[in-house]
Amino acid sequence: MKQFADEALIEVSSGKGGNGCVAFHREKYVPRGGPSGGDGGRGGNLVFTIRRNLRTLAHLHYQRSFKAENGQDGGGRGKNGRNGEDLLVPLPPGTVIKDPDNDEVILDFNIEGENHVFLKGGNGGWGNIHFKSSVNQAPRKALPGKPGIFRRIKVELQLIADIGLVGLPNAGKSSLLDKYTNARPKIAPYPFTTKIPNLGVLNLGSGQDRYDDRDIIIADIPGLIEGASHGAGLGHRFLKHISRTFALVFLIDLSQANFIDAFDILNRELETFSPELSAKKRIICGTKLDLEGTPQALEKLKQSYPSEKVFGISVFSGAGLQELAAEIGLMVENI
């Protein structure tokens, strides 16, 4: 099974400041020169930077410890140590930094190109040149550099998308994503084909002036089952990705015997996990309209939920795809 790296426990630390130097000026004919010890350099900062080209936290599984460079020690003749280099740790948009002990959110990144100095490097220590006074012409005192800061953190990824596709296993989410976007998720005629969330971009610019240059990001969330809100299957891991979407499209397999109950099952799991999820804007979409008996099932679905917007589609024949795309565009535009 291909793993979707959306969580990681890592250790991060900033650099230690360099030590101050004890030194004295020495040259010909100046046998007793004054103090000349330079200061230590500042330790490097630990910086998080958001990179759009990253989609998972896989790179944090290969390297679990990140430390910025220490500042260099000061030298004689008043030479200060070099500052340590900052360490940039790249993260994908939608990353959340948490305290691993209590799951408290420390930082929430959702903007591409955003940089944040998470841990500041330690200050460099003073050299003995700073301690010269009228009563102490030859101080042999210098300060050590301040230590860097160490933290153990939990990094979580919550996908950012305009639309989240939710449904029971084998409802046709991956097929719809494949049809609408350039994403190529695995598709097969059996449940639980999708084991990792997939993202795709639906462009509504061609032939529709209203949506020119409007790209809509769609997230295909792996199939949910009853009890997902309590952790059944991989429910918790996948439900959190829906929380970043602006709206939801509920896909209902019209060929299944339980198609009438599917929406209530899904909505109940969302509401149990987070009431905010069930309150999002939504569309109900019956799938596999090309199969025998499904047009009648679609009418029953519409009658069962008169207050909801219900559409029917067939990825195989293309029926209803244009109407659904237009409605998705309207919903995202209004939001």
Give an overview of the whole structure:
The protein is of the alpha/beta class and 335 residues long. It folds into two domains: 1-157, Distorted Sandwich (Spo0b-associated Gtp-binding Protein, Chain: A), CATH 2.70.210; 163-334, 3-Layer(aba) Sandwich (Rossmann fold), CATH 3.40.50.300. It has helices spanning 59-62, 173-180, 235-242, 259-273, 275-278, 294-304, 321-334; strands spanning 7-13, 46-50, 65-67, 87-91, 95-98, 105-108, 115-119, 150-157, 163-167, 198-203, 215-220, 247-253, 281-287, 310-312. The longest helix is centred in the last third of the chain and has 15 residues, at 259-273. The two termini are 36 Å apart. 42% of the residues are buried. Residues 185-195, 206-212 and 225-235 have low confidence and may be disordered.
CATH homologous superfamily title of the largest domain: P-loop containing nucleotide triphosphate hydrolases
Reading the helices and strands in chain order gives: EEHEEEEEEEHEEHEHHEHEH
Mean pLDDT: 84
Number of domains: 2
Based on Cα principal axes, name the global outline. rod-shaped
Order of the strands making up the biggest sheet? 10-11-9-12-13-14
Question: What is the CA-atom radius of gyration, in angstroms?
Answer: 29 Å
Which residue ranges are poorly predicted, with pLDDT under 50 across at least 5 consecutive positions?
A: 185-195, 206-212, 225-235
Give me the count of strands. 14
Classified by CATH, the class of the largest domain is Alpha Beta
Number of helices: 7
Main beta-sheet strand count, sense and barrel state: 6 strands, mixed
Strand content: 15-25%
CATH fold description of the largest domain:
Rossmann fold
The percent range for helix content is 10-25%
Structure classification: alpha/beta
User: How many angstroms does the end-to-end distance come to?
Assistant: 36 Å
Under the CATH scheme, the architecture of the largest domain is 3-Layer(aba) Sandwich
